[in-house]
């Protein structure tokens, strides 16, 4: 009796027997399976592949999970392209309120992860050497030094990698309050440099901070000024001379103070010598990376694109060498970074990321930096947004231009957002592996993203209608707005121009015609806006590229049978070519871009002509002629003017001073109020006395005489902006050895 009770109790404790839970291998062998997942004990012992037949419950759970994933992905896409108001509405619809979002903040006095980036996992690519310095060597490297307290470090990360955001912001703002005092001390220190006149130094720095720095923000001004005054890692003679060289490029040649610097070449030579010293350091410095990024931009602007590409590549290698591309959450516990350090590191990486996208589209090459650990909310020092901007150092600027808030950091944040869309566009449209089944929806999605991005821009940095604005915004804000419209052109231009079968999608071809012409017209109004306030001076490399890209559409539109459309395209093209050739006086590489446009004009009107652009003096198109005469004749020499610039003696560095732009022998200094090709004469050759000289490799084939030079040149992302630059896609690097 007792035994029976025990057996009954035992059976009851086991519960009801389960059926149908065996894995496929055990079921096939008709042997008992313990149902352990993911691998049962028998399969583990025998080394068999353990597979369970999905039950109805499993299938239902999987379908629910997939539906949930699809829903969440859709919500993420909506949030990504939404403004703050729309984002709040989407979150509310999902049952997430502001109170819910801040629950963790209320529980632990507003402790948040740095930059809102990622999870706090230990990083295998980082180690600490015997001196306590962070080293970027992964676990496979012979230089890797494993941390014997890795478990403790992981726990420490989760506890200590959280910090008080308001405290960091307060720290940064306190330093910003000291900025003006430190800047005076900096200028006083620079007066002790006997090699540079104090007035010249002050003028060059002022020009850099006003016109060049706000676009890419690679130098964190607060740290630079502090360390140049008091000493520290964010200042170096190399960086200072690079800034001088970059600013010197746009100095007024009629000002005697700037005659000796040879458009910054004197400082460039010194910077290159100092770079040799920097390269011998055991560990790259952030100031060196910043200098290389600026140097890369300067050399590209001058048409020395290979130099610019290499300097930028060095900067990217260096920033990876010291782990700037790694989320700072994984560095903070080891490096003990201050809020200043964190802000400087973020700005350098974001600057490199944004500049990498600029080079990518200008040179027609895939981006190098594809991953970005930061969101656009990660910059916490926005004190420079309130700094007043005015066009200092530009004598012929609009004298009525009012002081305007710079919104420097705000604009920089949105450049980061736009750069991420640029990467997506490049991978979708300019990839050789375009999926014809998905290209339409992907292109439309990208257009929606770009238009939503523009619509969500804060009003203080958004230019809705450039034709109705009296004063042009600061160049960095101007660049953000015009680039948004140019990216829409780049998104659709291959479908409009390219003869490649992969772009022959009827719906997209029709859409491309409308979008490209509309956006080119908007670019034209942006040019007129810039010209009204700043004449044609101090253009950046990015602005020149945007102008060139708009011109490629005007060339295509010139041959439309609609005379009104052709005349409008001619007016737009005249404005763009004038602006390009004006800047070419200081950036000779741009003259080649203008020549590309004129060569396409020749091919457009006379496709059978294979001769290069006429470099002899040509006659001007008379003002009483009309565009149809040019179309009928096919003779683009009618668009040329006599060679009007005369060479001046070269300087010791090989530079030639810029000519005075006046009189009948100069490029027109103002745009016609109502103009067309009949009112603007296209120079038929590169000015012989370009302010800067650029040499081209003798092995490089002139695109004007190359048999491969076709209208399809406009279809790639660079569009011929840098004609001597080799462009490629990632697919071009896949070698087919069957053909060797």
Description of the structure:
The chain is an all-alpha fold. The N terminus and C terminus are likely disordered. It has a domain of 163 residues. Helix content is 51%, strand content 2%. Strand 2 and strand 3 form a beta hairpin. It has a two-stranded antiparallel ribbon with strand order 1-4. A two-stranded antiparallel sheet has the order 2-3.
SSE inventory with pairings:
Elements: H1 2-14, H2 24-29, H3 41-46, H4 56-80, H5 84-93, H6 98-101, H7 103-107, E1 111-113, E2 127-128, E3 134-135, H8 150-160, E4 162-164, H9 165-177, H10 179-190, H11 198-216, H12 221-230, H13 237-248, H14 265-279, H15 286-301, H16 305-321, H17 332-335, H18 339-363, E5 388-389, E6 404-405, H19 408-429, H20 439-456, H21 475-497, H22 506-534, H23 541-557, H24 563-583, H25 589-605, H26 627-633
Antiparallel strand pairs: 1-4, 2-3, 5-6
User: How many alpha or pi helices?
Assistant: 26
Poorly predicted segments: 1-15, 97-122, 148-162, 610-709, 736-740
User: What is the rounded Rg?
Assistant: 31 Å
Our estimate of the beta-strand percent is under 5%
Q: State the separation between the terminal residues, measured CA to CA.
A: 89 Å
Strand order of the largest sheet: 1-4
Strands, total number: 6
Helix/strand class: mainly alpha
Largest sheet: 2 strands, antiparallel
Task: Summarize the amount of helix as a percent range.
Answer: 40-55%
Shape: globular
Mean pLDDT figure? 73
Briefly summarize what is shown.
Helix content is 51%, strand content 2%. The protein is built from 26 helices and six strands. 42% of the residues are buried.
């Amino acid at each position: 009796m007792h035994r029976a009770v025990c057996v009954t109790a035992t059976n009851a404790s086991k519960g009801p027997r389960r059926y149908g839970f065996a894995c496929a291998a055990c079921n096939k062998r008709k042997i008992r399976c313990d149902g352990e997942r993911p691998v049962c004990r028998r399969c583990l012992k025998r080394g068999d592949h353990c597979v369970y037949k999905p039950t109805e419950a499993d299938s239902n759970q999987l379908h629910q999970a997939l539906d949930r994933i699809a829903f969440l992905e859709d919500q993420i896409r909506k949030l990504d392209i939404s403004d703050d108001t729309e984002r709040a509405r989407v979150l509310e619809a999902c049952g997430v309120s502001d109170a819910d979002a801040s629950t963790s903040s209320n529980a632990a006095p507003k402790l948040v992860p740095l930059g809102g980036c990622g999870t706090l996992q230990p990083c295998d690519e980082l180690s600490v050497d015997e001196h306590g310095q962070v080293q970027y060597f992964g676990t496979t490297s012979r230089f890797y030094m494993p941390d014997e307290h890795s478990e403790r470090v992981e726990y420490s990360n989760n506890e200590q990698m959280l910090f008080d955001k308001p405290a960091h912001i307060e720290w940064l703002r306190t330093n910003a309050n000291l900025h003006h005092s430190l800047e005076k001390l900096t200028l006083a220190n620079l007066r002790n440099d006997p090699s540079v006149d104090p007035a010249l130094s002050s003028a060059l720095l002022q020009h850099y901070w006003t016109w060049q720095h706000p676009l890419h923000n690679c130098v964190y001004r607060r740290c630079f000024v502090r360390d140049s005054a008091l000493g520290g890692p964010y200042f170096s003679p190399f960086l200072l001379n690079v800034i001088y060289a970059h600013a010197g490029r746009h100095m007024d040649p009629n000002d005697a103070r700037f005659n000796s610097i040879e458009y910054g070449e004197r400082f460039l030579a010194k910077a290159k010598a100092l770079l040799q010293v920097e390269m011998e350091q055991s560990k790259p410095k952030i100031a060196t990376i910043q200098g290389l990024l600026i140097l890369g931009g300067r050399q590209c602007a001058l048409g020395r694109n290979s130099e610019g590409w290499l300097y930028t590549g060095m900067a990217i290698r260096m920033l990876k060498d010291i782990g700037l591309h790694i989320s700072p959450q994984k560095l903070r516990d080891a490096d003990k970074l201050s809020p200043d350090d964190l802000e400087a590191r973020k700005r350098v990486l974001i600057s490199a990321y944004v500049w990498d996208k600029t080079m990518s589209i200008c040179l027609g090459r895939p981006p190098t930096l594809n991953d970005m650990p930061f969101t656009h909310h990660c910059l916490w020092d926005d004190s420079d947004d309130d700094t007043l901007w005015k066009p200092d150092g530009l004598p012929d600027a609009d004298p009525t231009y009012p002081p305007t808030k710079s919104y420097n950091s705000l604009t920089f944040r949105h450049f980061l957002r736009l750069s991420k869309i640029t990467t997506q566009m490049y991978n979708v449209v300019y990839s050789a592996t375009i999926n014809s089944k998905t290209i339409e929806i992907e292109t439309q999605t990208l257009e929606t993203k770009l238009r939503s991005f523009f619509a969500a821009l804060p009003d203080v940095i958004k230019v809705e209608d450039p034709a109705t604005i009296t004063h042009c915004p600061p160049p960095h804000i101007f660049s953000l707005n015009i680039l948004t419209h140019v990216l829409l052109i780049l998104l659709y231009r291959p479908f409009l121009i390219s003869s490649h079968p992969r772009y022959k999608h009827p719906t997209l071809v029709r859409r491309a015609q409308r979008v490209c012409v509309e956006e080119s017209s908007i670019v034209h109004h942006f040019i007129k806006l810039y010209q009204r306030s700043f004449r044609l001076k101090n253009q950046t490399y990015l602005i020149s590229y945007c102008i060139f890209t708009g011109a490629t559409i005007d060339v295509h539109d010139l041959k439309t049978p609609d005379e009104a459309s052709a005349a409008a395209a001619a007016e737009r093209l005249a404005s763009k070519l004038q602006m390009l050739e004006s800047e070419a006086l200081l950036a000779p590489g741009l003259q080649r871009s203008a020549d590309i446009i004129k060569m396409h004009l020749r091919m457009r009107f006379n496709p059978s002509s294979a001769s290069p652009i006429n470099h002899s003096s040509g006659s001007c198109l008379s003002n009483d002629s009309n565009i149809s005469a040019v179309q009928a004749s096919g003779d683009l020499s009618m668009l040329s003017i006599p060679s009007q610039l005369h060479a001046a003696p070269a300087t010791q560095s090989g530079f030639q001073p810029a000519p005075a732009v006046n009189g009948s022998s100069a490029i027109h200094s103002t745009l016609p109020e109502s103009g067309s090709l009949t009112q603007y004469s296209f120079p038929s050759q590169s000015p012989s006395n370009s302010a800067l000289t650029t040499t081209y490799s003798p092995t490089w084939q002139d695109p004007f005489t190359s048999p491969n030079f076709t209208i399809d040149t406009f279809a790639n992302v660079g569009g011929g902006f840098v004609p001597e630059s080799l462009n490629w896609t990632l697919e071009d690097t896949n070698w087919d050895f069957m053909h060797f």
